[in-house]
Amino acid sequence: MATGGLKSLLSTAITTGVTEARARIFGHILNPTGQKSAHKILRKKLIGEKVAQWYPYDIKKDDPQIMAMEEQERLSKLEMLKRRGKGPPKKGHGRRAAKRNKK
């Protein structure tokens, strides 16, 4: 009867020793109590640089000629819409103002 208890005690000691050695070799963290830990999240690589490298550099943001040309296109389109009567309303005459005056 005592041999069964000794055998189980010896086997648990061996398994804990093996798990500790495995953790030391492979750089794992032991968590015998099973409590939540942030180690899994902290050991991940940061992905910000990879995401930034995926998108190409936009030269339009630095070139003042392209920015001026885009602004000129926007203003000409707005002028065309105004001539057709489809432009933005004057300040205080929009949809929200009309709704407020309706009451």
Automatic annotation (TrEMBL):
Amino acid composition bias (Basic residues), ranges on this chain: 83-103
Subcellular location as annotated: Mitochondrion
Keywords carried by this UniProt record: Mitochondrion, Ribonucleoprotein, Ribosomal protein
Chain intervals for the UniProt region annotation (Disordered): 79-103
GO CC annotation terms, alphabetical: mitochondrion; ribonucleoprotein complex; ribosome
InterPro entries: Ribosomal_mS33
Keyword Transmembrane helix tagged: no
Key word Calcium present: no
Domain of life: Eukaryota
Similarity comment: Belongs to the mitochondrion-specific ribosomal protein mS33 family.
PANTHER family membership: MITOCHONDRIAL RIBOSOMAL PROTEIN S33 (PTHR13362), SMALL RIBOSOMAL SUBUNIT PROTEIN MS33 (PTHR13362:SF2)
Protein name (Swiss-Prot/TrEMBL): Small ribosomal subunit protein mS33
Species name: Prunus avium (Cherry)
Lineage of the organism: Eukaryota, Viridiplantae, Streptophyta, Embryophyta, Tracheophyta
